[in-house]
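The data layer described in this paper is built around a simple, fixed record for each protein. We quote a single record here, exactly as it is kept in our systems:
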Amino acid sequence: MCNISGSARFVLLLISLLTILLGLTATAYGQRQTESEFGPVVSAYLGYLNNEQEVVDDRASRREITGAYYRRNSNRIHALRQMTVRLARQSGNDYVPELEAVTVGEFGTIFEHRPNLTGLRSGEVVANKFRFLGAVRTGETFYLFARLDPYEQADLMQRSSKAASAPVGGNNGQSASETGTRARRAVPR
């Protein structure tokens, strides 16, 4: 083992603490700089996510939560942050929809019937309640959805009920019963 004097240990400890402090300051500065790029609504939401991360960090430091719980929630917060910044930059609007970030195992928390992941496309409406925004991989894959507002939901339901009651095919506005014929299914012989 190496013998280090007390003053050398103190200097090493001081350098380590300064390095950690500078790293945290640079991270906080980078986050604040990103937040100042946006309007008050997006900045407030990013600030909210920073506060959520601080709460999770505090609970972890007091050993109130498991390591797995800490990682999942930190990764979820990071995914929400990434999607918020992406949406704000793409749209140029100072608006954040109500976001949900879930893993495959958590789909049951927001969906009654789990959607098919292979057919899910960005911008697609799922269950007349959510718009799929995309997947973000931050340690694990989170699927991000924006909850539709009540007006969008009502409009979608109204359109789907109109489409269900509309005649199918080129019947010139006649229902299947008015035409006197219906499609027959071919039976293999």
In short: The longest helix spans residues 6-36. Confidence is low (pLDDT under 50) at residues 28-33, 170-189. The two ends are 88 Å apart (CA to CA).
